[in-house]
Specification:
By secondary structure, this protein is α+β, with helices and mostly antiparallel strands. It has a domain at 3-123: Gcn5-related N-acetyltransferase (GNAT) (Aminopeptidase, 3-Layer(aba) Sandwich). The protein has 5 helices and 8 strands, in the order βαααβββαβαβββ. Strands 1, 2, 3, 4, 5, 6, 7 and 8 form an 8-stranded mixed sheet that branches. α4 links the parallel β4 and β5. The N and C termini lie far apart (32 Å).
């Protein structure tokens, strides 16, 4: 069982330890981070996400209070009731144990029940099948939004969007 709390500066060490490979960072970074990931980048991220009303970052903790995951909301549109879920990562030691699904479930509960949002989107690369299966298992479906392609060391990755709507809300409401 995990719980979530707002992201703190002390969580940087966990993120740096989980994001040690260039490929992992490339799958995670969106348009914000660059390789190699540094404390300075995470410091700026934490500062920005704590100050701006359209962003919120969280850390997932295990029963002992040890960080096991991270996610954030960006592009929160309070009027439209939408947000983009991103920067999703778990400790490699807990991958495949259901921790990621628990964290995504808690992220959606936070978005719908705590923040009062009606739709959450996220993006995932086609080469990240484990992540896609996790998101779809928690209710995400393909979004009607064009994706894009990027190249990583000669591999072409297709980025596509998924969405989850608050239970009881119809698409677009």
């Amino acid at each position: 069982m995990i719980r979530i709390r707002p992201y703190k500066r002390c969580d940087q060490a966990a993120l740096l330890s989980w994001l040690k490979e260039e490929r992992t960072v490339a799958l995670w970074k969106a348009d914000r981070f660059s390789w190699p990931l540094t404390e300075a980048q995470l410091e700026a991220y934490g500062r920005d996400f704590s100050r701006e009303a359209d962003k919120a970052a969280f850390t997932a903790l295990n029963e002992a209070g040890v960080p096991v995951g991270h996610f954030s909301f960006r592009q929160i549109d309070w009027e439209m009731g939408t947000a983009h879920l991103g920067f999703i990562v778990t400790d490699p030691a807990v991958r495949g144990t259901g921790c990621g699904r628990q964290m995504v479930r808690l992220a959606l509960a936070c978005a719908f029940d705590l923040l009062g949002l009606s739709r959450v989107t996220l993006g995932v690369y086609d080469c990240n099948q484990a992540a896609r299966r996790c998101y779809e298992a928690e209710g995400f479906v393909p979004a009607d939004r064009p994706g894009f392609e990027t190249v990583f060391h000669g591999e072409t990755w297709r980025y596509f969007y998924l969405q989850a709507d608050r239970p009881g809300c119809k698409s677009g409401s």
